[in-house]
Amino acid sequence: MGLSGRSTGMSVLSCEQLPVRAASNMKVISLGGNPNVGKSTLFNSLTGLKQHTGNWPGKTVAIAQGIYRHRDTDYMLVDIPGTYSLMANSEEEKIARDFICFGNPDAAVIVTDATCLERNLNLVLQTIEITPKVVVCVNLLDEAKKKRIDIDLNALSGQLGVPVVGTSARTGAGLEELVDAVHDIACGITISSPVRIIYEDVIEEAVSIVESIVNDIIKDKLNSRWVALMLIEGDEELISSLKTYTDCDLTAYEDLADKLIEVKERLNKAGIDQDSLRDRVVSQIVKTAEITAAKAITYNNKKYNSTDRRLDRILTSKSFGIPIMICLLGIIFWITITGANYPSSKISDLLFWIEDKLTAFCSGANAPSWVHGLFVMGIYRTVAWVVSVMLPPMAIFFPLFTLLEDFGYLPRVAFNLDKYFKKACAHGKQALTMCMGFGCNAAGIIGCRIIDSPREKLIAMITNNFVPCNGRFPTLIAIITMFFAGVIPGPFQSAVSTIILTGVIVLGVAMTMLISGLLSKTILKGLPSSFILELPPYRRPQIGRVIVRSVLDRTLFVLARAVVAAAPAGAIIWIMANINIGGLSLLTHCASFLNPFARLMGLDGYILMAFILGFPANEIVVPIIIMSYMAEASILEMGSLTELKELLVMHGWTWVTAVCTMLFSLMHWPCGTTCLTIRKESGSLKWTAVSILVPTAAGMILCFIFANAARLFGAL
After folding, report:
1. Cα separation of 142 and 138, whole Å?
2. Are residues 121 and 257 in the same domain?
3. In what order do the strands lie in the sheet with 107-113?
């Protein structure tokens, strides 16, 4: 399908991407664990501001590196993707397993959730099979205490044969003991004797036969017993990774191949084929986890999770799940709409005051008019527009959305929408990537890495643009306010705007599912895959941390990318508006050429041209329309929405034009940043082109149907 390991984050394990020891005594520590166990909180608590995230934004499949110092030793902590398993069924599992195997960490810390420890022990046991240098961090002890769950850490350590430390990362409790244990393991002070998982006799015999040969080949590079088991299971990913990172090609050894054939025949005679072998291995790991947990955990309150279950009966119910989800989305939009107006106007005033100073400077320096026009009226003014329009809504939207994520609600959204995506032959996790698209479609595309199936991953990428990003909200909100909510008395305008905007979003979600179904039945045929979706415990969000991290990691990151795209767009817009041919600007000539086609969709040539020129950044579509209608040589802003509506109506806008413009804004080609991200993530120009054509075709068809229906009934 064009997807590659490099495009999905595997390049983190290339030689140049592996953690680099800044000094000979620096230790590298991998930090792993299931999703939603507080791993990121622990990482931030230990490393503070000394962090660096590679080319994989978003915590789902990002590998972040941070440095901390303990006992005169520097440690590089590598936050590998959260995953439930190391079976290499998904990109997260591949990245996590390959780093533990080939990243040469001096110790591996596995973070677990004290409130659901038994389930987390599966990953612990799988890691122990790979390396003995493991420290188990039992996090969220404070929550376990509230639920009256007692954990005997010493007994657990004795069962596992590795150090076990209890922590509450939010409060910092236990972190000193954790770094002490990591130091002792990494420096060889503590030598672990991990528990050995004993499989059925026939499997153990097969493993011992293959292990004797594997041990001679790989030496001390990996645990030969574990490698032998994976080879018997037919793990092609491990063979490929060994060849990539250690130059050890196991397929080149004929005696190993002969032994593998021999043991597989033995297993087949015992009624164990390749699929049932993995099932039996996993079952034994689960059974070992159950036995281990039973000897270390005491539940003093059998109803410890009753509150979570009561909430889930409401938030994930067939009757209330979807309506509550839509209401929460509407509340977030209402807060974003009402809260962004004032700071947006103030930022705009500041930036355009700076523009006046730049104009005065150019005048005083006798700069050529084209220099002032290109750099100040073109590039700077466009960038100022993007910043003033994007920053306030993102600074409100991202923290609110992250609070829902921190609370544990987003997995419930995926649960509610899973059956609908399944009907469309798509993946339930697409609901999460769709949610990411509300902030930025490029972030949503990157989030598609959490989907295991390449086919379903491509469907999620192609349809992500049907969810409007933060850059399209200003256009939608302005049109809704001018042509629909503006007729409502003042106090209720925001509420009406929110309801209509939420309706537009619901339409986008419906189109996502519709197009996903069409793709599944045409160019991307296939059955939906199954997946495990954990509903984590509800937790009180860390408001301060959420605000800081969402602003730094999401808001400013997305804003910077938008500014980079908007700057050259500003130059192009100014040039097109100032180059005259036959008394008319190049912009006017292009709009006139597009006008007949645009009229069929209920638009006009200037509107369609504004969308084309807005390719680098959706925020500048409305300013380009204003500039075009006023025949000015630079991008403009009206003094109020009332003035803007008068201008639009003067140039032929009706409510039908407004609806068609909203529909095309909702469904048209992705912005430049998103297209580049699709190209990088898919590794294919073909699928990038499909991702552009599919939403654009859908938008054109929908606009054409609506506009001509309106003409038929005399509304246009």
Report:
1. 11
2. no
3. 51-53, 64-70, 73-79, 27-33, 107-113, 134-139, 164-166
- The length of the chain in residues reads 716
Q: Which of 145, 163, 186 is the last residue of a domain?
A: 186
Domain that holds residue 44: 10-186
543 and 651: one domain?
A: yes
* Count of domains observed in the chain: 3
Three-state DSSP state, 61: coil
Asked, for residue 686, whether it belongs to a domain, the answer is yes
What is the 3-class SS of 1-19, one letter each residue?
A: CCCCCCCCCHHHHCCCCCC
11-25 pLDDT per residue, tens: 334 433 444 444 557
As a whole number of angstroms, the distance between CA 13 and CA 2 comes to: 20
62-93 per-position pLDDT tens digit: 567 889 999 889 999 998 888 888 875 666 77
| Residues 72, 216 share a domain | no
Going by C-alpha positions, the residue among 285, 667, 637, 179 that lies closest to residue 466 is: 667
Residue pair 531/429 in contact by the 8 Å Cβ criterion:
yes
Quick check: helix, strand or coil at residue 284? Answer: helix
Q: What is the token pair recorded at 324?
A: 């509550």
Are 208 and 343 within one domain? no
Task: Tell me if residue 164 falls in helix, strand or coil.
Answer: strand
pTM value is 0.68
